[in-house]
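Readers of this paper often ask what the protein records in our data store actually look like. Such a record has a labelled line for the sequence and another for the backbone structure tokens. Nothing more is needed to write down the fold, since each code stands for a local backbone conformation. The record that follows is passed on verbatim for readers who wish to inspect the format.
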Amino acid sequence: MTVPQHPIRLMKKVYREVFPIVHFYINYWREQAEKIPNKELKNQAIASIDKKGFHCEGGGILSIISGPNLQQCIEFIVAYQTISDYLDNLCDRSTSLDPVDFRMLHQSMLDALTCGAPCKNYYQFREEQDDGGYLHKLVQTCQNVLSDLEHYPVISKYLLELSSYYCDLQVHKHVKKEERVPRLENWFEQHKENLPEMEWYEFSACTGSTLGIFCLVAYAFHEDFEEKQATQIRESYFPYVQGLHILLDYLIDQEEDEIGGDLNFCSYYDSESVMMNRLEHFVEKADHHLSGIPHENFHKLINRGLLGVYLSDDKVASHKELHKIAKRLIKLGGMTSYFFYVNGRAYRAFQKLPWKKSS
């Protein structure tokens, strides 16, 4: 199996082979969302796909590791990411702010990773109920892909660990405003001794990514995959690669979150210079922790590429202070980050073309 280790070869494979399959499955789930009977659930399902479909594109890149099993791997990635984005929308738009409701909704993400787990009424603690089986179909799609994996038993404990972190985060960050930070601080204290030195808001960021899950699933398609590699991947992606991924996400959304009154982990740094130093720390540590894992150069390419992709966002270009930070980070990432930055700007411009939108 050839895994691209050069930016141009990677992007060629992504645009020609990965994105068409990703878009096929995104369109499939959008069609399913259109059939949801309950208006609110339908609106949130459609909005999450329309506004966050790029998450599936990003996650889909890791499917390259699965070799000839690209389609099956992408089917899992798109279904799992669609659950994540849909539930995020439901929690964001919640009027009850009920942690019990959020916990039950996110049980679907744990069930999706547990072969044979029966689907439950994930909406039982909220008013809106009838999704026409939409969430159950997503959960079962993930289970079906995992049940075909010979090495599922090798990765299952790490999948559930990373997903449990993610689900805990979603519960704590969506409750009443005054409860959010105390809950997140207490949660961090429970895990602090098993983590490298970091702040509570950095730990929260590290738990908010699905990249580690996607990477483990992609590798589990390999016949020669074993426990040692599963441990390497978990320790490489969590906390630093995942943390960098989410901190960049929050960095570009700072102004938007401030206006909307949403929790933003980058806003808790004492100053811009402290934040910059910590982001640089995460870039360097992520690179260091990827040393020695299978296809090391591919993963380092993805890590450096994350910088370019996120920082090519239009919100960065239109914000003077953010643009200054972006330039420093891209410089730190070297030519690889710069390549992905230029590529990201071009791709976004292409997506806005009038003929592209109408096609």
Q: What stands out?
A: Residues 154 and 226 are 7 Å apart (CA to CA). The chain has one domain: 7-352.
